[in-house]
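mind reviewing this stuff:

——
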Amino acid sequence: MPTEEKGKANLVNESLSKIDATYIELRERILFGELAAGAPMYAEDIMRYTGVSLSMARQLLLSLGAGGYLKKSGRSYVVSTFTKEQVEEWRLALCAIVEIGALKLALTGAEKIDETAAFLNAHVRGIDVRNERFFIGAMALTTFVLGGPRSTLSQLVEQFIPQAFFRLLWIADSYADRTGFLVEAGDRFLSAARSGDLEGIRQSVRFFFDGTAPSLYTLIDNMAGGSFPANEKTDGFQTIELQISGVPTYAGSSRSSTPILRPISDAGKLAFAL
């Protein structure tokens, strides 16, 4: 954990509960290198440096571990190390699953395609990629394309791809030569879907994942070397977003069905509402 000079957790928003704000604070420190990869993290340390209770600290460890930000090591946790090999595996898996979802969506018919266009326009297009609203919209759009939060494809994504990957993909935009891959991929998909071009649909999905891959690789390489991008996100760490499957970020045993950490903004409920 950081030294005592950091003091109590820098609560992101005074309106948040202490546990929500501390979760966001720790997640941000992990992603931007303030907590070094491989560093051990104990509930007692979190309690001491953030002021939350021991039970809350344990909940935070479970939640951050479930999201892929921490990794279980024996009876404790360590900060996750994101390797290029692991990130590439997640990227390819997500691309393949989204490609299936896009093909299924297109074959559903014109009404669903029009709904996709309306959603893209309302929640992604025209929003600054640095704003967390863009990230939340992109997450919700992915859920939509996969057939909704309870679909088999969404469940596959939740099972194999940690939530941390989606944040990494968003942060990697700091190294991109240009932005707009998601909107352009969406437009390509809509054009191909309306003309019945199945290969064009596949290519639209690959356009996004291949187009964003170089900046993602740069991010991971830099992180491995101890270099992290400047945190220039606009309102970038205010939300504990829902997972692709619509399940809230929560702390508890794998058998628990009751969320302990609930979404902290209406924007965070967007994907689940679909």
